[in-house]
Design a protein that fits this description.
The complex is a heterodimer of chains A (495) and B (506). Chain A has 495 residues and is of the alpha+beta class. Chain A is built from 16 helices and 14 strands. Chain A starts with 7 loop residues before the first helix and ends with a helix. The model of chain B has no long low-confidence stretch (mean pLDDT 96). Classes of the chains: A alpha+beta (495), B alpha/beta (506).
Chain lengths: 495, 506
């Protein structure tokens, strides 16, 4: 199967893309949406279930008030109107992982609607209009057992209903126009924005790799300058920020090739594959009729204006505003600041600065040495076993001359290995820089005695040869010396 | 004549509490009656003899230990096979659920257990409560104890027949469009559809969620009230349950005082299509109520004419969604799973084989009514009619304290007579459906015989005014019994047609 792809820049010269993003956020409530089962990722299959989330005959749902609270706070943070009265609806379709063969969702009466957010792509602001944010329940998981792991050629399938009934909020944008070639980057930035927002609100773990934040990306193309939107595709299974950008990039090139060749885009669902392409799924032209109707087992949700006002008070400083504030306070250049944001280090550096380090020092440690460690460990910066306060302490030890950069890296090793705070590691490993001149002077004497030819060259004016003697001294001192001091001593001794 | 079978639930509870008889003896006597007559009546799908006797023994032990007993402790009950009871077969009269043992109790099942009520077993019903005759049961047809060639009503025909054949003094039903009241009417028993939300639906397998109302069935108005008291009240597991105190239904049933009460006769619920004998008994019952000091007024509820049509759109719409879960994946019947068929094919084959004709008919109608492009015309319009019916009720209740009508337009029809004519079958619920659409409460009380078969008198009251049903019901019951010199069922026992019931009564 070969798919023709247009050159991206060429595509953007001829067409305008229109985006539509649907983001599912799994809420981190203690219990599920409609029952008291624990809302936890994974677990032994079918152990976090009860008659309600298994949809057993006779069972009835009861709405989790905390989930409604989270949904309202999300709505408020997205500058949405909150419905004074809304209902759940049943979305009817048969699928083995749907225990009731309908999903309890919201249809024409979402809890939050008509919002907007402003995101930033390389310094250019984009306003994204939010159509709605509504509540629904997640389905169970089908595991298709067979060669490919896909349903079509599976030998059999296993069903795990642990996830069934997990509370979700689905955030749907209005069509996003005017992004031009930045469309993929805008989509990525928007989802990253939502991720940070959910973290700041504390309503979700937003782990894309665990599916607690999932994005379906709709895109269509229309001839440059046109106003009539083209037929769209919806790409599912886009489970990382990088994938969102790559999938849209791919879809734009694929659709452009079709349209430029006089063909047309099939309105359909497509699946993203991490190798870098999409394949067709269900055709949307023969879309299922979900026969939505108001869920008769639940009473309407009617949050009072007082409650909504109370929840508005609980909103934390939202990430976009925080970014603007910190950028101004710290004074980094655009790119320097963007690197911090992209590395997910903003909150960490803010906390490091709060613990006494300078913004520059905070940036240095988190974006270089610690970023490398996180990369090696395959984890997020925030998941490293070192706290912002410990990083600030490390920096203080460096500034006091107790540690040099090389020793500081060893201290980081110690902290990450669980040996305690930086001071603990300095004490425990005996790592402090040796500044005692007599001990150093003795080491320098020994180094000169052991390397008479080098010493002779330095004496004859070849000062650059001093490196070999410094190395010998540092080796003897096991790194616990200030290299500049050693150089000074060597040159003084030989002069 | 065995007094334990003839006694009311209230009397049995008193005898057990006083130590005159043990619950085990009462329970065993009813199990014996089931063994003696159920071969003719076919009321039970499942008799849980060992479990019932164990429950009876527990009550007897409580009494022996000097513990305070609940008002119905030790009294046996027949449970419609739509209530989940942990480990007890629950089929809803459908082959698709054959063999399913619920792993949990309905709220009402737990409340019965807590009150020491002894569950004898599960009674027959139209499949998933869809029908007015039990002929839609996936297993067998239940026969009317008054005339075994007649239907016992439906969907709760099994529960009503169990009461009328003295197999149980108490029974449970669910009323979606009349499934408690219409069987009560045609078997000469009492059936109550409580206010929607007044009894918990948790663990009661759903037919039409916005209409389904569990309720008590009994042979006397007081017994129904006592059972209502046990099963009723708020349940946090059912969002649609009402968090308000249950009205004093038992006090109302004991009082029966209707002096000065305004009783509204609904003009739309009578006339053409109503059997002359039914209208005759109804008119006599009105006179009986007048003799007790009630004032009879006429009220008009014009929207009731559209109730049946609206009901047959809303109910099947909800049915089409509620019955989706019976897909062979997790419990119940599974057909065609030979290792080569896909899950989708297994679902299709199972649903094709497991559901009966009426269930399929309603699933298809409901699926159609909810389809894109038809929703507004069908489901949407029906909801508007529902609002109009509520308004008619509200207006009528400004001039009358309760409304009354015959419970059903005719007496019990012959088994097989309406099987091929669903519309004729649906008309059996003409008078009962409006209360379901409005969420109000209603009762059916026996008011005599027409051509040897029982006629039911329906009383309807506003939501949360269930006590009015019992007040009027008790008054009518007392006034008519005084004239007959006993209950209506006494007339069955005295007649040759009821001789077979005496087999276990002596």
């Amino acid at each position: 199967m070969s798919v023709e792809l247009y050159d991206f820049d060429q595509a953007m010269a001829e067409f305008d893309p229109v985006l539509g993003l649907e983001v599912h956020v799994e809420l981190n409530t203690v219990s599920k949406m409609f029952c008291s089962c624990a809302n936890v990722f994974g677990g032994e299959p079918n152990t976090r279930t009860c008659p309600v989330c298994l949809g057993l005959p006779g069972s009835l749902p009861v709405v989790n008030a905390k989930a409604i609270e989270s949904a309202i706070r999300i709505g408020l943070a997205l500058n949405c109107e909150i419905a004074p009265w809304c209902r759940f609806a049943r979305k009817n379709y048969f699928y083995p992982d749907m225990t009731k063969d309908f999903q309890t969702s919201q249809y024409d009466e979402p809890i939050a609607f008509n919002g907007w957010v402003e995101i930033d792509v390389d310094g250019e602001p984009f306003r994204i209009e939010i159509e709605r944010a509504h509540m629904e329940e997640d389905a169970g998981k089908s595991v298709h057992v067979g060669l490919s792991g896909r349903i079509g050629d599976a030998d059999y399938s296993l069903l795990d209903y642990n996830r069934a009934g997990t509370p979700l909020v689905e955030i749907v944008t209005k069509p996003i126009t005017g992004t031009g070639a930045k469309a993929p980057a805008v989509a990525k930035a928007y989802v990253a924005f939502l991720r940070d927002l959910m973290l700041a609100l504390g309503v979700s773990d937003v782990r894309m790799e665990q599916g607690s934040l999932r994005c379906d990306a709709n895109v269509s193309l229309m001839p440059k300058g046109a106003t009539q939107f083209g037929l769209r595709t919806e790409t599912k299974n886009v489970n990382s920020l990088r994938s969102i950008e790559a999938a849209l990039h791919y879809e734009i090139r694929r659709q452009a090739a079709l349209l430029a060749g006089g063909g047309k885009v099939h309105q359909e669902t497509r699946h993203w594959h991490e190798e870098g392409h999409t394949t067709p799924g269900r055709s949307k032209e023969t879309a299922e009729d979900y026969r939505y109707f108001p869920e008769p087992d639940l009473v309407p949700v009617a949050p009072s204006p007082e409650w909504i006002a109370e929840l508005r008070e609980t909103l934390p400083e939202l990430p976009d505003r925080k970014r603007k504030r910190l950028k101004a306070e710290w004074g980094f250049a655009d790119q320097e600041f963007a690197d911090i944001v992209n590395a997910g280090a903003l909150d960490l550096i803010e906390a490091t600065v709060a613990a006494g380090a300078s913004p520059a020092a905070g940036r240095k440690w988190w974006l270089t040495e610690l970023a490398r460690r996180a990369n090696e460990a395959g984890c997020e910066l925030a998941e490293l076993a070192i706290t912002p306060a410990q990083v600030a302490e490390l920096q203080a030890l460096v500034e006091a001359g107790t540690l040099n950069d090389k020793l500081a890296r060893q201290v980081i090793d110690g902290v990450l290995a669980g040996e305690g705070s930086p001071s603990d590691v300095v004490t425990g490993r005996g790592l402090a820089v040796v500044s005692d001149d007599s001990a150093l002077a003795a080491a320098v004497e020994r180094a000169i005695a052991a390397n008479p030819e080098v010493a002779e060259r330095i004496r004859s004016g070849k000062v650059q040869a001093v490196g070999a003697l410094i190395g010998a001294v540092m080796q003897e001192m096991r790194g616990q010396a200030d290299a500049a001091k050693v150089r000074e001593l060597v040159l003084a001794t030989l002069s | 004549m065995n007094e334990l079978l003839r006694a009311t639930a209230s009397e049995l509870a008193g005898m057990i509490a006083d130590g005159e008889v043990s619950s085990r003896e009462v329970t065993q006597t009813h199990l014996d009656q089931i063994a003696a007559v159920d071969g003719r009546v076919n009321a039970f799908l499942h008799v849980a003899a060992d479990r019932a006797l164990a429950a009876a023994d527990a009550v007897d032990a409580q009494r022996a230990a000097g513990e305070q007993l609940s008002p119905l402790a030790g009294v046996p009950l027949a449970m419609k096979d739509i209530f989940c009871a942990q480990g007890m077969p629950t089929t809803c009269g459908s082959r698709i659920l054959e063999g399913w043992l619920p792993p949990y109790d309905a709220t009402i099942t737990s409340r019965l257990a807590q009150a020491g009520v002894v569950v004898l077993g599960k009674t027959n019903m139209d499949e998933f409560a869809m029908g007015s005759s039990t002929e839609n049961s996936g297993f067998f047809v239940t026969h009317n104890p008054w005339d075994n060639t007649k239907i016992p009503g439906g969907s709760g025909g099994g529960s009503a027949a169990a009461l009328a054949s003295f197999e149980a003094p108490l029974a449970l039903g669910t009323d979606t469009g009349g499934s408690i009241r219409q069987p009560a009417a045609v078997t000469g028993t009492v059936g109550v559809k409580p206010t929607y939300g007044g009894t918990s639906r948790y663990g009661v397998v759903a037919m039409a969620s916005s209409l389904d109302t569990p309720g008590p069935c009994a042979r006397t108005v007081l017994d129904a009230a006592l059972l209502h008291q046990v099963i009723g009240g708020w349940d946090p597991m059912d969002s649609t349950s009402i968090n308000a105190p249950l009205p004093d239904v038992v006090g109302a049933a004991r009082s029966g005082d209707i002096a000065g009460m305004r009783i509204g006769v609904v003009t739309e619920l009578g006339g053409e299509g109503y059997a002359p004998g039914v209208e005759q008994r109804f008119a006599e019952a009105l006179e009986a109520l007048q003799r007790r000091g009630a004032e009879i007024v006429e009220v008009s509820c014009p929207s009731f004419d559209y109730a049946l049509a609206a009901y047959y759109l809303i109910m099947p719409s909800e049915v089409s969604s509620n019955l989706a879960r019976f897909d062979a994946m997790r419990y119940g019947l599974r057909v065609g799973d030979d290792g080569n068929t896909s899950a989708e094919e297994v679902m299709n084959l199972t649903r094709g084989a497991g559901f009966g004709a009426e269930a399929k008919r309603r699933i298809i109608i409901g699926t159609y009514a909810l389809s894109a492009g038809y929703y507004d015309a069908y489901y949407g319009s029906a909801q508007k009619v529902r609002t109009l019916i509520k308004r008619d009720f509200d207006a009528a209740f400004t001039t009358a304290d309760v409304l009354v009508s015959p419970t059903t337009p005719t007496t019990a029809f012959t088994i097989g007579e309406r099987v091929d004519d669903p519309l004729a079958m649906y008309k059996a619920d003409l008078c009962t459906i409006p209360s379901n659409l409005a969420g109000n409460c209603a009762i059916s009380v026996p008011c005599g015989l027409a051509d040897g078969l029982p006629v039911g008198f329906q009383v309807m009251a506003p939501a949360l005014a269930d006590d009015r049903l019992y007040r009027v019901g008790a008054a009518l019951e007392a006034e008519l019994a005084a004239g007959w010199g006993g209950s209506l069922l006494d007339q069955l026992l005295a007649s040759p047609a009821g001789a077979y019931l005496e087999g276990g009564l002596r």
